Amino acid sequence: MVVEVADVEQLTGAALARVAEDEHMPPEERAHAEAAVKEDGAEALAYLVDPFDLVSEVPGIELTQASWSSETVDYDPDAPDWDPDEDDDDDDDGESDGDDEHDAEYGHEAAYGRDDRLA
């Protein structure tokens, strides 16, 4: 799942409010959580979205692990070279896409614009 953060301050503020509302969180853990939320959008999202709630009603699915990560990616949906799977260097058969030379020469940011997204 990929989400776009349209307003990082609003996301961070909502996560900080959620951390502040947690009556069971010890003060040391609260301080750490607040710092993490301010530093990383994935941490902020993790305090607001429960992965179990996302899949608990899906038949045949059991959540065994969930993790969050964030990265700044270059994004222009109208660009002809935009490929949402551009970081996926392996085809379904496990072979490289053969574009490693292009990536090494131009780099990710040179090829795709800039946008903040969480994956």
Structure summarized in a few sentences:
The protein is mainly alpha-helical and 119 residues long. The protein has helices spanning 8-21, 27-39, 41-48, 51-55, 100-112, and strands at residues 3-4, 70-73, 115-118.
Structure description:
- By secondary structure, this protein is mainly alpha-helical.
- It is 45% helix and 8% strand.
- It has a three-stranded antiparallel sheet.
- Helix 1 (8-21) runs antiparallel to helix 2, helix 1 (8-21) crosses helix 3 (41-48) and helix 2 packs across helix 3 (41-48).
- The chain is globular.
- The termini are close together.
Count every helix, treating DSSP H or I runs of 4 or more residues as helices: 5
Low-confidence stretches: 99-117
Could you tell me the strand content as a percent range? 5-15%
The radius of gyration computed from the alpha-carbon positions, rounded to a whole number of angstroms, is 18 Å
Topology as a string of helices (H) and strands (E): EHHHHEHE
Mean pLDDT: 76
Please report the total strand number as a whole number: 3
| Assembly of the depicted chains | single chain
Largest sheet: 3 strands, antiparallel
Main sheet strand line-up: 1-3-2
Shape: globular
Fraction of residues in helices? 40-55%
Class of secondary structure makeup: mainly alpha
N- to C-terminal distance = 6 Å
How are the SSEs placed, and which strands pair?
Layout: E1 3-4, H1 8-21, H2 27-39, H3 41-48, H4 51-55, E2 70-73, H5 100-112, E3 115-118
Antiparallel strand pairs: 1-3, 2-3
Q: Main traits of this protein?
A:
119 residues; mainly alpha; 3-stranded antiparallel sheet; disordered C terminus
